[in-house]
Design goal:
Blueprint lengths: L1 E5 L1 H4 L9 H12 L3 E6 L1 H16 L4 H13 L3 E3 L1 H15 L3 H13 L2 E4 L2 H7 L6 E3 L5
Parallel strand pairs: 1-2, 1-4, 2-3, 4-5
Helix pairs in contact: 3-4, 5-6
Length: 142
Amino acid sequence: MAKIVVDSSVAIKWFIPQKHSDKSRQILSAYQEGELDLLVPDLIYAEIGNIVWKLNRFQELSEQHAKDILKTFQLITFSVTPSSLLLNDAYHFAREYQRTVYDSLYVALSLRHQCLFVTGDSKLVNAVSPAHSNIVAIENWS
């Protein structure tokens, strides 16, 4: 089974229609069909919770829809790595590429497992893609 790292910018598109949601849902479908193992740092739960909270607070996402998203998200069986195990590598990557440690946790995880990291963060991809071809923008995932 292939492994990929996904971040919250990809995962939220499973629930909220956004640009490239179709590509993101292809990843979810491949996971559901047993073709992909989804790897994440434990940080993703806080990130998804925060995104859903912001959508509820500022963009008229109903409370019920917010609760449904969180409940469904928690049913996904990710291969979760504690951020503490990735912190040193993430910190070094963040310093080298002037990225946040938050984003660098995902990069560190993908480097550790030598697999793709799919993200909706085009700024991150553009900043590191020449040196790290394993980091792919969601619109280029296939």
